[in-house]
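Sequence of Stress-associated endoplasmic reticulum protein (Aspergillus campestris).
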Amino acid sequence: MAQTPQQRRANEKFAKHEAAKRGKAPGNVAKPTKQVSKPSLSKGWVVLLAFVVCGGLLFELLRVVPEIWAMLTRVLG
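Predicted 3D structure, token representation.
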């Protein structure tokens, strides 16, 4: 019994679907290109964040150190 055009289209569609499930042959697979990932923060934002954190710490130390020094001179002197 010969295939009807409708059966032929259905068979071709099924064959394409099955071929897609199996994947491509090793010779046809393209090598993946190496992608360079971008950092989530730019250098400027990192510098600003470091300045805010370290600068705040520095100013706090400059405020606290004289108080500690005065307390030590009273205790030891």
